[in-house]
Amino acid sequence: MGIWASMFAVMLTFMPSAQASSVSQASSPFSLTDDRGRRVVIDKAPQRIVTLLPSLGEIVCELQACERLVGVDRYSNWPERVKSLPQLGGIDDTQLESLVKLKPDLVLLARSSRVTQRLESMGITVVALEPQNQEDMRRVIQLIAGALHLPQPQERAQALWQSIQQKLDIAASRVPAKAKGMRIYFEAGSGYFAAGEASYIGETLKRLGLVNVVTPSMGAFPQVNPEFVVKANPQIIFMGERTVTDLNNRPGWQRIEAISQQRICAFTPAQSDIIVRSGPRMPEAADLMVACLKRMFPQ
Predict the structure, then answer these.
(1) Closest CA to 174 of 285, 291, 296, 281
(2) Which CATH class is domain 175-296?
(3) What is the distance between the alpha carbons of residues 101 and 82, in angstroms, rounded to a whole number?
(4) 124-161 in b/e burial notation, b at 16+ Cβ within 10 A?
(5) Model pTM?
(6) What are phi and psi of 13, to 5 degrees?
(7) Cα–Cα distance between 23 and 45 in angstroms, integer?
(8) Could you tell me which CATH number the domain at 17-167 has?
(9) What is the pLDDT, as a whole number, of residue 27?
(10) Is the peptide bond before 79 cis (omega within 30 degrees of 0)?
C-alpha cells in the first residue's frame, strides 16, 4: 500500500464538532471536548507529549512547543527535529509498551486510534482530534494551543491561522489565468477515493480557482465509480505518482480531457505527505499544486 493509501486511512473518519471552554489564564485548568465528544481537563502545561497523527505534531511544533514532543507516529517527518524522536507505529499498530515507557503526560491522537481506551485506563491524558476541513483545522489549532497552556493561547492560535490564510492567498494569486475555472479530479487514495469539495484538499482547490468534479453532497473523501470520472471529464487530474502508471489500464479513461491533453499532476511520496495532511503546511501544499499548474500553463 502506497503512502497515499496509508495516509488516506487516517482521513476517512468523520467527527463531530468540538468546543473549547474559555480560560482566563494559561495556568488555569483547560477544559475541552475532543472529537469523541469526551470532556478532557488538562490541569497544567504538559511537558512530555506524544502525537500519533502527523498533522497534530506539526501543529504542536508550529505553536513553538516542539521541544515538548517525546514520541510520534511512524509517518511524522516534519519538522526535521521530529525524525530523531521514537516512532511508535500507526493508528492500527501503535507500540503501546514503547509509548508508555516514554511517560507522556498528554497523548494527541486520531479519533480512529485503537489505543485510546487502553491509554486512558492507565491514567494517561488523551485528546482525540482529527481535522477534516479548514474550519476543523482552525478549531484544532485553538484546542491544542489551550491544551499546551501557552501564554495567550487564543492569540497564538489566531496568529498561526492568519498566517496560514495569508500564505494561501499568495498561492492563489499565482495560479495561471488559463487554469482558473477548469474541472479537476483529485485522487486521494487507491481504490478511487477522491478528495471532494467538502474536504480540506477540496477547499484548497477551490481557493485556487479550480472546479472539483466531486461535489460537497458526495462527502469529503468518497469512493467514486470510475465511470463517474469518465462522465465528469475533468480537465486536470491530481494524484500520486505511483498511481499514474495505472491510468492506461483504466477502461475509457483515455477519453478524459485531462489525460488526452496530458494535464496530470503526479506528486511524489514526499509531496503527497504534505498535501494529504490537514495541518499547518496547507500553504506549502497549495504551492505544490500551483507549481504544477504553472508547468501546464506557462505564461
Answers:
(1) 291
(2) alpha beta
(3) 18
(4) bbbbbbbbbbbebbbbbbbbbbbbbbbeebeebbeebb
(5) 0.88
(6) -90, 130
(7) 13
(8) 3.40.50.1980
(9) 63
(10) yes
